[in-house]
Amino acid sequence: MSLPPIIGDLTPLVPAVTLVAFAAITLLFGVFTRERVALNERAALNERAALSERAALGGLALTGVAAALVFAFYLWLESNASGVAAAALGGAYLGDALASAFTFVILLGSALAILLADGHLARLELDHPEFHPLLLLATAGGLVLVSAGDLVTLLLGLEIMSLAVYALAAWRERSRASEEAGMKYFLLGAFASAVLVYGIALTYGATGRFDFAGIAAAAATPGFAANGLLLLGAVFLLVGLGFKVAFAPFHQWAPDVYTGAPTPVTAFMSVVVKTAAFGALLRVTGTLVEALGPGPIGEVLPAALAVLIGLTLVVGNTGALLQSGVKRMLAYSAVAHAGYVGLAVLAGGEAGVRAAAFYLLAYTLTSLAAFAVLLSLMDDDDGGDRLERLAGLGRRRPWLAAALSVAMLSLAGFPPFAGFIGKVLVFQAAIAAGHAALAVLAIATSVVAVVFYARVVTTMYLREPDAHSAPIRPVGRRTAVVLAIGVVGTLAFGLFPGGWLELVAGAPAWIAGF
Amino acid sequence: MIAALMVLLPLAVAVALALAPKPAVHRPLAMFGVVATLVLGLLAVDGGGRLEVPWIASLGTWIALDATGAGGVLARVAAAVLLPTVLWAGARVESRPHLFLAWLLATLAGLSGIFLARDLVLFYVFWELTLLPGLALLAGWGLTHRRAAMVKYLLYAVAGSFAMLIAVLAVGPLSGAAGYRFDQLLAAAPLLDPLTQTWIFAGFAFAFAVKLPIFPLHAWLVDVHEQNHASGAADVAGTLYKVGGFGLFAWAIPLLPAGATALAPLGLALGAFTAVYGALIATRHAHLKRILAYASLSHMGVVAVGLFSLHLAGKTGSMALLAAQMVTTGGLFLVSGMLHDRRGSFELDAFGGLARSAPALAAATLVVLFASIGVPGLANFPGEFLALLGAYQAAPAAAVLALLAVVAAGALGVNLYQRLFQGEGRERVRDVTPLEVAVFAPILALTLWLGVAPAANLTTFEREAAAAQTVTAEAAPVVAEIAAAVGVLAAGGVR
């Protein structure tokens, strides 16, 4: 298919633009139906009509994500067939293998998060019509973030995503915790953005370029003397993005925000936002490590990253060990998993990108399955995630318990689940890149992780429920779909990861830093 | 293809058992699963027993299985031992027996995978997977303090297997092997420099030491056995899962000869100590399952001594002993279940004088017990003898120490028999039931067969041990050459 040149140049933008367009449509649709919903409810005339209109919003949002996925897949096929990685806007927006892989993961995570949210929004009284547009905007921002070919586009993507998520985190209007979560995330996020902007400025000052390819090229020219300045810029960039991926010691917001935010939003944040931020981090570190080159100055950035990763692994896993709430445990475990993905970032190169993309895919499937079970058990006020809630689940609801067990085993890194293959890829990349010591630390902390994941499983199967424990409501259809996709995907990608890996590896030339 | 079926068939039967609605089909289905796996194992003697299919191309892993070698022998013995175990468990486990049987079948599938895998990543997958059935049997059917035992077991096992995971993932990229298949690794890994080999070997050895188990990584073993279901069937599954020795024999020692040589003294010392320690501690206990656990720990010490001798006879004997103790230790755990049936206790004080009212039970137990302490003509003897012979060639001190342990185990066995079956009997107990006869029959047959006609198995084990041995011998000069080359380069640099 041949497109007119100007549109042809813009094709990599299509998935993100589709999402923005659907965000607008959903917003309009929501605004116009809101009054009718309210009317219907007030008159108690037709509750089913009100419900179906609410469901229509979710369906519309899902359609948007699906359309974006179709376009992304088509773009990937196109660039595979032509053998050239696509780029738009003079290289500011890329459609290379990294962008494709991370786009797939983000869109999958977003679709599952929307399904999951739809099953519970009404029950949790969170179903304002702005929810879905914001979710779509955040997803679009994520796509921009992982496709960014220069630092300005990267900042743009980050802000599009973050602004939407700040609002989503504070979605429970009458909950202090949710308000606090949104506020905390906003303040620290703004601070992180400022640091990032400073890093961008310093990098520009050192090299005179914003685009990754240009930065690498400028630093490679003989006589380049601003290595110190570039390093300073690189460290600021690392810190700024470190906030977003929740590397320790910049992780402090994560457990509070993940716990305070409405659970469907937590699920969205822990998969989509994290995947997008890691896509950007991979590009930035890949470019800057190469630009700084070998030598004493060049070693500082990997060393700093290694320290952050080591801290993240220890803090995340020990933090999770100490929690009694499952949601908070998952929040700390999200921090810990950032450490494992960080290992792939540190390893860099094609192996690192492939490992990170697979790890995040596995994490997305598994983590959403876990959140789906959790949401089915929690109270209508979005509380009640204590471990005791799970007691006796093995006998009361064997399928739910089995699904959560699969999720926990996969998160812990047991074969034959996808989490295991993710760990294999990450550790192999790290060891091959010469970071064996850090890989050993990662393994040691994984043993700690097994304890808190196993605690969930043993509670379900070995502890008897309290006599007065709340009844467990039936699992809704959409939640069941999320569970099925999550569990089947976790198993399928664990047994046969080849297809996905080939898909990523087969994509044409890595550009901008790779 | 047959090799793949040896894994898939028991797995499919396990799933079917878990889902099968009618109680009437449970036991026949489980028996079918085990018998069919055993028959498959006996059929898989030539080309049909091998399989090689690419699995994850970008990682270089294969679905590679081979039932014709040492692993095949162990897989067959494991299936044969599970035959009476399934029979016994099906009758003795009252609560949710179909799930218990399903987990036993899952154990069989995992064990087949561990023994047959000829790809290191695949081996690791099965190694880790087989942990789950053991934990599930303990969790679902264990005694009151099972939670603590589970946590202990899980932590030891996971610490070990994660250390192995690092070793697995290091040995591939660092050696530059084309893939993780055994032959691919064998072409590259032994050429690694000795220091790297030692580190990687340490990772493997840690995992294998936990699962052998040997001192000081054995603490989980006794608690798990004590807390398992009283029938003893879960203990048999646990005994079969003591695959650390096989891991050393089939993977760590052939792939990392220099690492093995470097760490062999430590392994010999720990192995010999474990042998003596297990036998001595066993005499201090009055709980039947704890005694059996410590006695089997002592055997594992001998296995370790044989392996770390790095001598052909020692390695061959260790594998034979491993196979034999599956039968004898497994058989004794089943006997413990039968005894518990009669007295409702595992404390030795509850027993005594059973031979008077149950002479057949006493005689059958005596044969298995004698086999276990290494009486010639019965299962354990050929392996134990060869393991110690090999050890004596390489490290006389360790061999002598281990030999002391064998003497102590003998005293322990005789003493145990006396306290159970002789002396003052308090009340009459029933003699063997038809079911128990059926359980004993395969155990006794295997005990005799492994003792009287060990040649075929020993040949298989020796062939594989010898293949690794030549690699070691070939690798040594290469290592020396590399060292010399590095020396020349360094000298040139200085000049």
Poorly predicted runs of chain B: 473-495
Average residue pLDDT of chain A = 87
Q: Please count the helical segments of chain B.
A: 21
Instruction: Name the chain pair whose interface involves the most residues.
Output: A-B, 33 and 30 residues
Order of helices and strands of chain B: HHEEHHHHHHHHHHHHHHHHHHH
Structural class of chain B, by secondary structure, is mainly alpha
| N-to-C CA distance of chain B | 60 Å
Main sheet characteristics of chain B: 2 strands, antiparallel
Give the oligomer, counting copies of the same chain as homo and different chains as hetero.
heterodimer
Count the E strands of chain B. 2
Distance between the termini of chain A: 28 Å
Could you explain how this protein is built, in words?
The complex is a heterodimer of chains A (514) and B (495). Chain A is mostly helical and 514 residues long. In chain A, 76% of the residues lie in helices and 1% in strands. Chain A is built from 20 helices and two strands. Chain A has helices at 5-10, 14-43, 47-82, 97-120, 131-147, 151-169, 176-207, 212-220, 227-245, 253-260, 263-292, 300-321, 326-347, 349-377, 393-396, 398-412, 418-432, 436-462, 477-495, 498-505, and strands at 86-88, 93-95. A two-stranded antiparallel ribbon of chain A has the order 1-2. In chain A, helix 3 (47-82) runs antiparallel to helix 4 and helix 16 runs antiparallel to helix 18. Mean pLDDT of chain A is 87; it is low at 1-7 and 507-514. Chain B is an all-alpha fold and 495 residues long. Chain B has a two-stranded antiparallel sheet with strand order 1-2. In chain B, helix 4 runs antiparallel to helix 6 and helix 12 (244-255) packs across helix 21 (455-494). Classes of the chains: A mainly alpha (514), B mainly alpha (495). At the A-B interface, helix 17, helix 18 and helix 20 of A face helix 5, helix 6 and helix 7 of B.
